[in-house]
Design brief:
The structure holds two protein chains of two kinds.
Chain A (H helix, E strand, L loop, with lengths): L9 E12 L2 E13 L4 E5 L6 H8 L8 E10 L2 E2 L5 H10 L1 E4 L3 H4 L6 H12 L4 H14 L5 H4 L9 H13 L5 E5 L7 H18 L2 E6 L2 H7 L2 E6 L2 E7 H6 L4 H8 L40 H5 L11 E2 L5 H5 L19
Parallel strand pairs in A: 3-8, 3-9, 6-7, 7-8
Antiparallel strand pairs in A: 1-2, 1-4, 4-5, 9-10, 10-11
Helix pairs in contact in A: 4-5, 5-7, 7-8
Chain B lengths: L2 H4 L17 E11 L3 H5 L3 E12 L4 E5 L6 H8 L7 E6 L2 E2 L5 H10 E4 L13 H11 L5 H14 L16 H13 L5 E5 L7 H18 L2 E6 L2 H7 L2 E6 L2 E7 H6 L4 H9 L5 H5 L31 H5 L5 E4 L2 E3 L4 H11 L11
Parallel strand pairs in B: 3-8, 3-9, 6-7, 7-8
Antiparallel strand pairs in B: 1-2, 1-4, 4-5, 9-10, 10-12, 11-12
Helix pairs in contact in B: 5-6, 5-7, 6-7, 7-8
The chains are: A alpha/beta, B alpha/beta.
Subcellular location (chain A): Cell membrane
Family (chain A): Belongs to the ABC transporter superfamily.
InterPro entries (chain A): AAA+_ATPase (IPR003593), ABC_Ni/Peptide_Import (IPR050388), ABC_transporter-like_ATP-bd (IPR003439), Oligopep_ABC_C (IPR013563), P-loop_NTPase (IPR027417)
Chain lengths: ~350, ~350
């Protein structure tokens, strides 16, 4: 779905952000760069605290509503830098050009208003529609997200719907103004497996049909495999690897990606064998050290890695921010050293 | 886990031998909750969280229990631990009736059967040190005093892969993975034979999850533990279990040896669960057929008559909508609750859903 000739829709360049904490600024994003083409689905993956949600909040210019702020970089959507817009300009962009789908639809939907009223409100805020036209469009949207008995559902309150239906309503809200980009932050994480499969299929179909680009934030590699065209792997506030989904899964180039993929139990993993683990834990983001952030957990670490940060990734190709020989990464994870067994005895040494 | 490793389990090789006496037996267990609302209560509505569940776990064996949220799998775990009172049926641990246990017998039960829950942030008292948290169960059960407690805490910390000097820390200073290790050490403090792991790794990041799964395997090998491993991630449950039971709205629909049930599901719900689970492989995911099941599970307050899965089942006939199928052993060690399991089995053998068969990963 991605195409090299197309001008990227979203261009994030060297994005930096910090959160204020009692112990000083937490450097949540340390130079994040990537692009998303029209109609493309990019997955941002990584473990908790790696900067996935901070990236989404920064793009939406919502991070300053938390304890965070953007400290550098650019977020260009269709040529405009969103970070330099005033609040009025940002509000115009949010909803009509970029829309968000969050994990928990129960906290994002207003419990005191019907689904129809909430859809109508969003539609009329952003589009020149009268009440009747907005009603018609709301019905159309619910039908588009495959909600059964859509006409009756317009009169329902959020608590009257199941989790899967609520998430469908959220997707309908997100798509209501034909945005160019949808950011889905763990949008299927709270759902059951059979419901999740249905929602993923729906999201895939809608983006294909409407040409909407999507940034999918998830920690579930199965979801990534099914939904993404390209994948960006985040670690300690950086993108450590980016590439087409098949390349990332078949031939990861960063040791962290390789470790992450190897740590997932699969339907054909030999059960008597221990799973591959990544020992240790991510570095503190309170005072980032020079060098590669993964150095202490990497089985391929060299002296150079501790002092000199690797070249950042090139968002246009399959690339990794790593000094190691790609051939060694391909051979797969090894334990750090013999005394470091898989029990993680040195987790806090 | 091979049968050699675990000694007492029934592996493929020694299936012919007589089975050891089960450590845990759950017999026709039912747990109904009264409805919260007075109006519906008067109409006789109840939430049938668990409705006629039967299974057993042998010493050293892991039984995986899978199903979607709200199906009642955690409630079963709580009944085994005597944290909820069953409406009907029996739970026997080592031959003793759990539901009737009082006083000494209850203490014995608590020593034998421990639990590790999903959220290590909620399960540890933030005001207590790690050492006090792990030592407390020993003191409560009168297993050790003073210096002996301290020494045993150190041993347990090392056993779960933490440094002994972590005893002085508080939960807030630990990562999620370390907290879960402390929860496991605390469960092990009374030398239990059985641990209920209720979504014990679901809140953890992938790399930490792998560490905890390896630890649970190691402890089972070394201490001969039995687990009831409750989870919703089918790959994780497969990795941990010898046998797997699948639950749907308060009832078991199928159980079998792990390789059997994953390669050859007989119940249409097991098939759809397997077909819906995301697989971390783009080739498999892109070729995935249309979602095998439509709709969502009905609420346990409003259970359909007949088979509970019938409204969503591709094999359902009129009989399914009228008559609930019995949960029966249709082949040795294979239990199914379905009128038409033969037809379903034959159809699935023809179709082989994308993720039901183990997929090679490059």
């Amino acid at each position: 779905m991605s195409s090299d000739s197309q001008e990227p829709l979203l261009q994030v360049r060297n994005l930096r952000a910090v959160y204020d904490s009692a112990r000083g600024p937490v450097h949540a994003l340390n130079g994040v760069s990537f692009t998303v083409s029209p109609g493309e689905v990019l997955a941002l993956v990584g473990e908790s605290g790696s900067g996935k949600s901070a990236t989404a909040l920064s793009i939406m210019a919502l991070i300053q509503r938390t304890s965070g702020r953007v400290t550098g970089g650019e977020v260009r959507l269709g040529g405009r830098d969103l970070l330099t817009l005033d609040e009025r300009g940002r509000r115009a962009v949010r909803g009509s050009e970029i829309a968000l789908v969050f994990q928990n639809p129960m906290t994002t939907l207003n419990p005191t208003r019907t689904i129809g009223a909430q859809l109508r409100e969003v539609l009329r805020r952003h589009l020149p529609l009268d009440r009747k036209a907005a009603d018609a469009r709301a019905l159309e949207l619910l039908e588009m997200v495959e909600i059964p008995d859509a006409r009756d559902r317009l009169k329902s309150y959020p608590h009257q719907l199941s989790g899967g239906l609520r998430q469908r309503v959220m997707i309908a809200l997100a798509l209501s103004c034909d945005p160019k980009l949808v950011i889905a932050d763990e949008a299927t994480t709270a759902l059951d497996v059979t419901t999740q499969a249905q929602i993923l299929r729906l999201m895939r179909r809608l983006t294909t049909e409407s040409g909407t680009a999507m940034v999918v934030i998830t920690h579930n590699m199965g979801v990534v495999a099914g939904l993404a065209d390209r994948v960006a792997v985040m670690y300690a506030g950086r993108i450590v690897e980016i590439g087409e989904v098949r390349d990332i899964f078949r031939a990861p180039r960063h040791p962290y990606t390789a470790g992450l993929l190897a740590a997932i139990p699969r339907m054909d993993t030999e059960r008597s064998k221990d799973l591959v683990t990544i020992e240790g834990r991510p570095p503190s983001l309170l005072d980032p050290k020079p060098g590669c952030p993964f150095v202490e957990r990497c089985w391929l670490a060299m002296d150079k890695c501790a002092v000199q940060a690797p070249e950042p990734i090139n968002p246009q190709t399959h690339s990794a921010a790593c000094w190691a020989d790609p051939e060694l990464v391909r051979q797969g994870p090894r334990p750090l050293s013999p005394e470091l067994t898989t029990t993680g005895a040195k987790e806090l040494s | 886990m091979t049968s050699l490793d675990k000694g007492l389990t029934m592996g493929v090789d020694d299936r012919e031998q007589t089975a050891p006496a089960p450590l845990l037996e759950v017999d026709d267990l039912a747990i109904h909750y009264r409805s919260q609302s007075r109006a519906t209560r008067r109409m006789g509505y109840a939430v049938r969280a668990v409705d006629g569940v039967t299974f057993s776990v042998a010493p050293g064996e892991t039984l995986g229990l899978v199903g979607e949220s709200g199906c009642g799998k955690s409630t079963i775990g709580r009944a085994v631990l005597k944290l909820v009172k069953p409406t009907a049926g029996a739970v026997r641990f080592d031959g003793q009736d759990v539901t009737q246990a009082r006083g000494r017998a209850l203490m014995e039960l608590r020593r034998g059967c421990q639990a590790v829950f999903q959220d290590p942030y909620d399960s540890l008292n933030p005001r207590m040190s790690v050492g006090a948290l792990i030592g407390e169960p020993m003191v409560v059960h009168g297993l050790a005093k003073g210096d002996a407690v301290r020494a045993r805490v150190g041993e347990l910390l090392e056993l779960v892969g933490l440094n002994a000097d972590m005893a002085s820390r508080r939960p807030a200073e630990l990562s999620g993975g370390q907290r879960q290790r402390v929860c496991i050490a605390r469960a092990l403090a009374v030398n239990p034979r059985f641990i209920v792991c209720d979504e014990a790794v679901s809140a953890l990041d992938v790399s930490v999850q792998a560490q905890i799964l390896n630890l649970l395997h190691k402890l089972q090998r070394e201490l001969g533990l039995s687990y009831l491993f409750i989870g919703h991630d089918l790959s994780v449950v497969r990795h941990m279990s010898d046998r797997v039971a699948v639950m749907y709205i308060g009832q078991l629909v199928e159980s079998a040896d792990v390789d059997e049930i994953y390669a050859n599901p007989y119940h249409p719900y097991t098939m759809s669960l397997l077909a819906s689970s995301p697989v971390p492989d783009p080739e498999v995911e892109r070729d995935r057929p249309e979602a095998a099941v439509r709709g969502e599970p009905p609420s346990p307050t409003n259970i359909p008559p007949g088979c509970r899965f019938a409204p969503r089942c591709p094999f359902a006939q009129d009989r399914c909508r009228q008559e609930a199928p019995a949960y029966a052993e249709v082949e040795p060690r294979r239990w199914v609750a379905c009128h038409f399991w033969r037809e379903a089995k034959a159809a699935s053998a023809r179709a082989v859903p994308a993720s039901a068969a183990p997929e090679p990963t490059a």
